[in-house]
Fold this protein.
Amino acid sequence: MSAPKTIPKDAQVMIQILKDMGITEYEPRVINQMLEFTYRYVTTIIEDAKIYATHAKKSNVDADDIKLAIQCRMDQSFTSPPPRDFLMEVARQKNQTPLPLIKPYSGPRLPPDRYCLTAPNYRLKSIQKKVSSSASRISVPRLSVGAVSSRPTTPTLGTPSVQSVTSKVSAPVSLSGQRFTVQIPPPSQTTTTKTATPPTPAVSNVLINPSLISSKNILITTNMVSQSSGGESLKRKHEEDDDYDTL
Amino acid sequence: MAAVQGGQVDAVEEKDIKTEPSGDGFGNNNANEGRMVSTSPGASAPAGSNKTAAGAPEDQQTLLAVLQFLKKNNLTESVEILRREAGLPENSLDPNGADSTGAGAGGTTGCVDLEGGDASSLLSRVTVSSSAGAQAPTKAVAEDQPDVNVVLSAYSQQGDPALYEVYYSSLKKFIESVLDCHRAELSQVFYPLFVHMYLELVYNNHESEAKSFFEKFSGDQECYYEDDLRVLSSLTKKEHMRGNETLLDFRTSKFVLRISRDSYQLLKRHLQERQNNQIWNIIQEHLYIDIFDGMPRSKSQIDAMSGSLAGEAKREANKAKVYYGLLKEPEIELPLDDEDEEAENEEGKPKKKKPKKDSMGSKSKKQDPNAPSQSRIPLPELKDSDKLDKIMYMKESTKKIRLGPDTLPSICFYSFLNAYQGLTAVDFTDDSSLIAGGFADSTVRVWSVTPKKLRKVKSAADLNLIDKESDDVLERIMDEKTASESKILYGHSGPVYGISFSPDRNYLLSSSEDGTVRLWSLQTYTCLVGYKGHNYPVWDTQFSPHGYYFVSGGHDRVARLWATDHYQPLRIFSGHLADVTCTRFHPNSNYVATGSSDRTIRLWDVLNGNCVRIFTGHKGPIHALAFSPNGKFLASGATDGRVLLWDIGHGLMVGELKGHTDTIYSLRFSRDGEILASGSMDNTARLWDATKAFDDLETDDFTAATGHVHLQDNSQELLLGTYMTKSTPVIHLHFTRRNLLLAAGSYNA
């Protein structure tokens, strides 16, 4: 590999600029940073100027366009702090109000809550069994299937492996903790099955807690695999859109 | 007319000389007015005669200017109406027709101002920018940006640009020919004159003349102005001037020179006897000559005090009374057995149990005359935990080592490894139990210095379960599972430049390049508040010694005082010409010192936001400030490698410590103020004898009145020791309560 013996002209210009401004010590990466900045700045200005020129229905970009482009960029990116008389005026007004008295024994002295960063930025979702009229979009608590060979406790992303063989389930089911299967009626709007799911509705990894199940009617519902986004079918089905409270 | 100290008397005296067209000699006390009309020489005499020494306000001048403008544009009807309404006499306009440029444009800006209806600040700016020789089109543009153009129009066409060099060199020749004693003082004029003339040429688009002017005379200036001149050399067009706030401020503020009366008379006489008074006009406009009676100063004295971007400080700027004394400490009784907290009370009345009374404050009950009253500014009262802290403090101070030239402190250095030059700020808690570092990758890291680990408070669910009545409840609220040596705080979006622990060790402040100051809780290690106000990098922040208040200073040239429970600042300290790089509280929390890139240090009063002291003398941006523990003195360090010592009460420089060869980033006095430690980029920490430096000060009336400094060159005697590190700049120093010196820096391989 042959490294260039001479530094490119642009870099030499940068070195000269640094020398003129009296900067003698600098890391070598500074030259690259300056070159990058220059290139980005110039291309941004010229692109803006082209836009202004076409807006003014001119065929060529001329100096006025460039000036306008520079001015707009300056106001946007390279702003400068407010002028001194403005600051003095603001300061004068601010300094006239006396210092507020301090309330005693008020715990941690913080601004009102809306100005603090102490509010939670998440919301806990409540898990509920929802009965839905349509066969689609149903939420399910996590049900565990006994004796499933590979039974991850957390939902995994991946192709939906049909772990439980689907078969019909009649209403009363006598459970002895053995494997049993659940058939989920296919939803009406299963149009796009993005993954290679078999036409029979594949069951997600449902975990059934035997204690929840009485011998009586069990209402087992589960979301459709295919309804969730294709690949992530084993994601927790709870997080569908209807789980978010409508605001 | 340069603003002459002496006011009324001088004004009257000047009036007699007013036959000269120099624009001098108006019976105006108000310097603004004098200047306003001065550069329209034709208008000077009659206008001057109309203005009595009773002090005609600036409005009068502006009205006249407006009249002139209207007349110039042949708006005769408006002229009549305005004259009638304003009640101006007829003859005030007569000679004005002759002079078009000065008065007309002055009228332009005045007109703009009236139309805009701006605040009086703009009005004063208008009157300041008297020689507004800008062309008529500036009116339209000025309406869009009244500030910038009014200010920019401060430079008029004073004369033929080619002659600037001639003027300057003739002045140079004159000054070189005066007596030695006056020469040093008059040479002060060179720098501001040079800069203003150069900027005038640039503003009026005489690029080639500006360049040749610069090349010819920039080498003559003092060496400590080298950085400024380099910046100027890159400024060749008018557009470059826009947006550079420091330059704008430089042009509008007056450069202060302190010259003795004799020297001043010499200069004035010389300039007035010439026909082309361009230099005299510039001096009148842009320089403020603070005249004092007495011996002219020597070159070394002048060099010690000059160097800042605004010249020196006017005498009256340093005359306000400053309460530099310390607040009285509340007397807390040290109980014989520590658990008995009821034995404390504020007044220190002896209790029946006769616990040992240990008052930290002054023994006398009389108020120190130099100390502010307790209620001057509202301060938070002490909580029980604070009282416990104070008791610990008193106990530790009894074990303090007394330092002196013979007993130097041991220095313990904390090196930050693998920081890759990203360590930008460090702070220790007062009891030296925690150390925090602010980094260029926008993180803040907190370490425990003692073997005790850092723990977070338990979650709310767990807190419900603990026994609240138990003795060690404060230990039980901590979650053992989160114990670790260090904690990282994420939140800023830019390098963290300032960091400060609160005195009660509950909070940590950090200021960053993203323009915010963040308050972190040291119990949950989360961010509580982000204080937005500076929209530009905030270079430094500090909690007040009593907690609750904190100050921050940044690129927008102001320092702000905040309270933790207000989302907006309480005070804005505005006045610096360039970035505020360092902010420190006085030990009594009533004053804030700010050091800036304009090479001055200002002391601000928290109560009303006024600037009570201006200290000039540094030749580079100031990066370190430290108050002495007794509150009387201030030490400052800058990029020029010198430490300067200031007497706050008198407002004078009292010492100069030379020795460092690179920027000084940290200064700290020992706990009793006997030793001053300084740390610098030259990888050394030095110890100086502070008691000796502040001893036998000559602060007699003469010195205080004139501000003459007689600095002894005793840096070598005061230097007690130089301690070198292995390529680690010392960026923070801290004396523990027992007077052990801790230092911190990041190791540069």
Q: What stands out?
A: Chain B touches chain A through 59 residues (CB under 8 Å).
